Give the backbone structure.
Amino acid sequence: MAELLFWPALLAYGEAAVAFVGEVRKPGAAGRYATWGIRIGWLVQTALLAVQAARADAFPWSTWAASLNLFVWLVVTVYLVWGCQPRYRLLGLAVAPPVAVLFALAHAGGGTDTSGAGSYSTVFLVLHVGLVLAAFAGFTLAAALSALYLWQERRLKRHAAEILRVRAPALARLDELSARTIAFALPALTLGIAVGVVRLRARGGGFDALMAVTLLTWSVYGAYLALRYGAGVRGRRGAYLVLAGFALVVVARLVLPGTHFS
Amino acid sequence: MKLVLVGVSHHQAAVELRERAALDRERAAELAGRLAGASGEAVCLSTCNRTELYLADEPGADAEARATAALLELESELGPALYRLRDEAAALHLFRVAAGLDSMVPGEGEILGQVRTAYEIGATGPMLDRLFRQALHAGRKARSQTGIGESPASVSSAAAALAEQVFGDLHGRRILVVGAGKIGDLAARNLLSRGAEIAWIANRSQDRADQLAHSLGARALPLDLVERELATADLVVSSTSAPGFVLERAQVERSLRGRRGRPLLLIDLAVPRDLDPSIHELDGCYLYDIDDLQAVVAETLAERRREAERAEAIVAREAERFHDWQASLEVVPAITSLRAHAEEIRRAELGRAKLSPAERRAAESVTAAVVNKLLHLPTIRMKQAAAAADGVLYADAVRHLFGLEEER
C-alpha cells in the first residue's frame, strides 16, 4: 500500500520540480503543470500519511526518516497555503526540488512504510514533534522566500535586461512574507521546545547536540524578528540571517536527529 | 459579394502623408456611409499609423476603384504608397491589424479598440459584420493566448513595471518627481494609473512645479528640499535638464537612516544624468538610468516578437475560418433552392394523398425525415467543395440536375 502511494507522490513532486525549471526558462504552461504536480503530490502524500496513522498503534512518525516524511508534507502544506499563486510561482523552484529529494530520502530510510511501529505515544511528545516540525517547515519556506529575494535583488542590482520577461515576486513582498512566516513559525518552535523541556524535566535525560542546535536556531530567528521590527534591519541583511537560521535547521533535520531519537 | 481593402500605413508612408489621410470619427463614418452606397458595405479604419477602407460589394461594382479614389481625394500624393488586397488576403490583413501584428510596436493594445470603433461607425452588412466580429475575436484571442501584449513597450511603462518588481502593488506608494518636463509627466502619469501616489513635484521653476503638482494632486517642492522628502518616498523619477547631478550619493545615504531598510527605486530619465550613479551601490537603493531602461525595453520587445510568431498562427487559423465561411456563401443559394424544391414536392405529394388527420401527421413526420436525410450529405459535400474552391461548379451542377434554374 505504502509503495502504491509513495511512487505517485514522488513522481508528482519530481514532475513539479522539472516543470518549475521549465517555468523559469519559458513562463506559461509549465508553471501550471508544476502547480498541479505539487497539488497531486500533496494529496497522495496526505493519503500515505493517513494510511500510516491508521495502521500505527502509536505516533507513526517517531523515527528520523518518518519524521522527514511528515516534515516534507508540512513544507508542501505551508507552500500550498499561498505559494502556488501565479505571482509566487517561482517560489516553487526553491521548494519542489528539495521536497522531492527529501521525500526520496525519507523513503530510503523506511519513513514511508506502514509497518505501524512507533515509540511515541504521549500527547506531550506528539505535540513536541509536531510543533517543532511545523516550525521547521515554516523556516524552510522562509528560507526559500529569502533565497528568491536575494536572486531578485541581485537581478535588480546588475540591471538584468530580462527582469520583466522572467518575473519574480516583488522584492518588498518577498521580504514581508519571509518575516511573516517566521513570525508564525517561531512561536510554534517556542511551544515545541517548551513541551520538550517539560517532558525532559518529568522523565529526566541529558542535554544533547540536537537540543543545542535547536536552541541556537531559535535564537537566530528570534534575533531576526527583533532586528527587523526593532532596528529596521530588512532586505539583503535580513535575508542572509534567515538563510543562516535555515543552515541550522538543515543540521538539526539531516545531521543530528540520530543523537536525539536514539 | 467580394471583399476589397485599399489603404495606406506606416510601412509605406511617412507621417507627413499619413496625417493628411487621417480621419476623425465623424469623417470616417461619413466616408464609410458614402462608399457603401445603396447596396454595398464599407468600413473606414483610421488611426495615427494607418487609414484603410474595407469594402464589400458585388463583383462588378468596382469597389476597389471607388476606395482608391476616396483616398486620393484625401491626399493626391498617396498613390504610390497605397496597397490593395482582396478577399482572403484582405481578411488576413485585418486580423493581423487587430492582433497588433502589423503595428509599429508588436502587440500594442490601442489598435483593438480602434478596430472596434471603426466597426461600430461603419456601414456594415453580412460580410463586413462577420469580418470585423471575427477580427475582434482574433485580436482578443492572440492577446489572451500569447504574451504579445504583456510586457512594456516604452521607457515610461518599463519604469512602472520595474517599480512593481520592487514594491508589488503600487497602491499607496509615494512618488517624488524631480523635474516638471514632459518626460517626467509621462512617467508620473503611468505610475499614477497603476495606483501610485504622486506625492511631490520638485522643479527649479516653482510655477511649472505648481502647475504639474496641481494636475497630479501632488505638492510642489523647491529642488533644495528634495533630500528632506527622500526618507518617506518610495520612488524617485528624475528628468530635469540640469547639467550636473541633482541628487548626490551623500544626500541619499543620509536619508537611508530614516528609511528603516525600506527599498528605494530611483529612475533617471535625464540626459545628462540627474542622479549620481554610485547611489546604486547603496544598500536597498536601485537606480536605473535611461540606458538601463532601454535595455529592458529592447528585451521585452524581443519577447513580443517571439510571441508574435505564435499570434500569427492564431490569426492564420481565424483567416482560414473566415475563408471557409465566405466560400460557403457561394453555395448557400443553391442549397436553399434545393431544399425549397424538395419541400415543395413533399408538400404537393402529401396534399394529394387521402389520409386521416392521424395518418397525415405520421406521413408529415416520415416524409420530412426522408427529405432531410436525402439532402444532408449533398449539403455537407457542397459546403466542403465550397471551402476547396469548387463550390461554384457544384452549385451549378445541382441547379442543372434538379432544374432549379428553370424555376427562378
Q: What stands out?
A: Chain B touches chain A at residues 147, 151-152, 158, 161-162, 164-169, 259-263, 280, 283-284, 286, 288, 292, 295-296, 298-300, 303 (CB under 8 Å). The first strand of chain B starts at residue 2 and ends at 9.
